[in-house]
Design goal:
The chain is an alpha+beta fold. It is built from four helices and eleven strands, in the order H-E-E-E-E-E-E-H-H-E-E-H-E-E-E. A hairpin with an 8-residue loop joins strand 10 (221-227) and strand 11 (236-239). The longest helix is centred in the middle third of the chain and has 12 residues, at 144-155. The chain starts with 7 loop residues before the first helix and ends in a 7-residue tail after the last strand.
Length: 246
């Protein structure tokens, strides 16, 4: 979140009091703030509850967090009746409900959400307002050198990332090869053994995501993609099917 937000009280008083009216895209209905038929409403759940506290293992650091829900209306595919007339809003309405966590670490606040739908992400960004979102601090940004570092840790059998997380396996990646003439995309399904992997690493081509199994000291094994995103104000982690929730 923007650096003007230092704590969760500011989020409750400012961000969670906001609504967004998304115009219904039709030439037959002109958008008006006073006409509910002309827009879809994005809002927050009215009672977001109180903030809670979580201690980060092995660090002594504390994160405060607030769980709430974004409720966003959007259109069904069918918007006209048999006479080609626009249906009433109640008959062309979908409602999306998404849990959003606002987390405060020191004087920084982050918005965290889980979704499989890019449109859902866009709606929640509009509800938060893009002017309230700023670039991630550098320590949270993902760049190709981090992926290369993970490969290096794995192939040199120095799998420990920190005191309680280790790399159990690296199973695939996607990346881009840039030449003077063309741009190519490549991917690997069994990373350490493939020639394309060695070519990417040797030529320092950009790797844009990596599929990795992490082992946590609790005995939890989690598989997911870590992705480089097109913008610098978000970090996306794509969990794979059968990943453990922990």
């Amino acid at each position: 979140m923007d650096s003007k937000y230092k704590n969760l009280d500011q989020i409750k008083n400012d961000v969670l009091s906001q609504q967004h009216k998304e115009p219904f895209k039709s030439k037959l209905i002109e958008f008006s703030e006073d006409n509910e038929e002309s827009y879809f409403l994005y809002k927050w759940y009215e009672d977001s509850g109180e903030a809670a506290e979580c201690k980060i293992p092995n660090t002594g650091e504390t994160v405060n967090y607030l769980c709430t829900e974004a409720i966003c209306e959007f259109s069904t595919r069918k918007i006209k009746d048999a006479n080609n007339e626009i249906l009433p809003k109640k008959d062309r309405l979908n409602v999306q409900k998404t849990e959003v966590i606002f987390a405060q670490k020191n004087n920084q606040v982050f918005a965290i959400l889980m979704t499989f739908d890019n449109y859902e992400l866009k709606r929640i960004k509009k509800l938060i307002r893009m002017s309230n979102i700023e670039p991630l601090p550098s320590e949270y940004q993902i760049v190709p050198s981090i992926f290369t570092w993970l490969f290096y840790k794995y192939i040199t059998e120095k799998e420990m990332i920190d005191n309680n997380i280790s790399i159990e396996g690296i199973n695939g990646f996607t990346g881009n090869v840039l030449t003077d003439e063309n741009r190519f995309s490549g991917d690997s399904g069994n990373t350490p053994d493939l020639i394309i992997t060695k070519a990417f690493l040797a030529n320092n081509y950009d790797i844009t995501s990596i599929k990795v199994d992490l082992n946590v000291d609790s005995g939890c094994l989690t598989s997911f993609y870590i992705n480089q995103t097109n913008t610098d104000n978000e970090l996306r982690i794509m969990a794979l099917k059968n990943s453990t929730r922990l």
